[in-house]
Amino acid sequence: MFGGKLLIVDDEAPFVDTVSKRLIKRQVNVIIAYSGQEALNKLKSEPDVVLVILDVKMPGMDGIETLKHIKSQYPLIEVIMLTGHANVETAVEGIKYGAFDYLMKPCDIDVLLAKCEEAMTKDLKTL
Amino acid sequence: MIHLDLSKYNELKDMDIGYYKSFTRKMVIFTVLFSFIPLLVVSTLSHHYFNTAYKEKVVAHINELAFKHKQNIDNFLNEQLMNIRTLAHSHDSSKLSSETFLRQVLSVFKESHSSVFVDLGVIDKTGGLVAYTGAFKLMSANYSETDWFNKAKEREFFISDVFLGLEGQPNFIITVKKDEIFLMATVDFKAFSSIVEDIRIGETGFAFILNRQGNLQTLSRYNVVPSRMVYRELISKASLNDNVAIFSNFKYLGKKYVYTMIPLKGGEWVLVLQQEVQDAFSKLYTARYIGIAVFVFAVVGIIIIALVVARKITKYLAEVGAAKEKMHERVRETNKLASLGELAAGIAHEINNPVAIMVEEAGWIGDLLSEEEFQETENLTEFKRALAQIKQQGARCKDITLKLLSFARRTDPRMVNVQMNAIVEETVKLTRQSFKFRRVEIKANMQPELPTVSASATEVQQVLLNLINNAVDSIDVSKDDGLVEIITKNDNDHITITVCDNGQGIPNANLDKIFEPFFTTKPVGKGTGLGLSICYGIIKKMGGDITVKSEIGQGTCFVITLPQSD
Predict the structure, then answer these.
(1) Which of B254, B280, B306 is the last residue of a domain?
(2) Contact B352/A87, CB-based, under 8 Å?
(3) Domain that includes residue B445, residue range
(4) With an 8 Å Cβ cutoff, are A85 and B348 in contact?
(5) Is B297 part of the contact surface with chain A (CB cutoff 8 Å)?
(6) Which of B80, B137, B269, B513 is deepest in the core (most CB within 10 A)?
């Protein structure tokens, strides 16, 4: 759908699994990771990832830390932060480190998809 | 004595007030003591040196006077003595014994000496009067038994003490020995006495002459002269070897006197100058009274200044203490809010994650149900309704956690001087944006140049947002002319902000409970019942008040009153 893969990163396995199934059903090429470290490994092995949906609060390497790594190693990959709580400060901090935007759980799949499309067309808009 | 009203500093505990009062007392005592001691030392030293110097000056002046008068009197006596001596040595005894000659001489003396000599006489060595001329009839007089004649016999010349003569008149006699006879002249006592009587020192000072036995040798126009015993005592104390003896503070009949004594007539007489101490040292006493007045004034001044300064310092310290306590209170509150915020964030995370999973699972079921094979399934509609309900309730959970976070979110509670119109303007702009699709007009009617109020800008904005949200919610969406008006006004020493709407109004029964926590009339899931109680808490904390007036069908007005900044 985006001309590349979408990586969903969250330590809540049931959430990741279900969301990925729903996105696949919507013709999105999805891969998943259950931690920040796993996400970085996946990015190494999957060069065609174009978009990452990243949970903020995860055990070990948290979302912000993972985002910093992603943005330093793959600056072209867009990241949308996903948070279980409405800590605007953390979300805004994510945007400061290069995230495209943030969404709050629970979020409608269509809203999620719309945000993903928005992120993918960002460059076109700025052209 | 030290009244200090610290009751207005609500933040101060009773213990602190006690401390500040004791601090003020100590400060007053220390200030008074440390100012009073040097003042006392300086005053005492000044008084001592001035007293000594002034007394020396007065004594020197009295000395000078005494010497001057002594000289006058001695000159007078010597002059009279010289006249008689010259007369005695210029003529032989037989001529001197001639009454005719004596009459002529007395006449000459009277012309040239203003009748100082009352008479002239010649006495033989047995004391019998040989010749006499003068006011008295003394021709048969014999002086052999008189004290003065016996003394005169032993000397070449002699001036007697004053005594009552044979005629009963006070007088004294000058005698000069010439061969076997004695030339005698009686001095006019009144003329002599007046020389001394006329002496005046200050307002109470006068002079008189005493002999060594303390008998008066002159008259005194004043009756304050103590008894002879007193003079004897004084004379016995004085070493009258041509020196002045001064006795000050001699008490007699309740008054203090200064006595100055100087010997006359070769030490046989004493010239006494008597003056009241109060008069002699009048300027010293005046200076002392002025000094005491200045001292008392300075002490009163020190006490007043110490009281005022101590109170001002304590007031300042109490203000600082109260401000510090207020700050600590805010820090505690902020920490509490921060903890509450963290707790709320944790709860939100813990709830939102499982809810997200449930919603996603429901979504997944919905996705699957939309496949063709399930289209004919019985109860498909019921499945879809149930899924929609799950989705809706998930959104409700999310909303609740958002509100919880909003309630616990950190605001800036710092009280600063804020311009209320600016906050109202900004809030109105924000809400206009939010409610642009609702047919509600949000209007601000602000009195220009409002004084500032001491408040937390973010908290006031939170209150206004809440009131405006409630106002908009109370307006029937079907209405065309929904209006929310925010009015600011200066009211004496307060500022009022009124938020009025033309909504449904609040029933009377609810008006009393409207600021109670968890009281809401909104449908379940729409309101937490915390908004107005938070507003109430915020406004009360700022020292203001919030009231409500409402009429069913007409609308509601919330009136916030905040005190102006100092």
Answers:
(1) B280
(2) no
(3) 414-566
(4) yes
(5) no
(6) B269
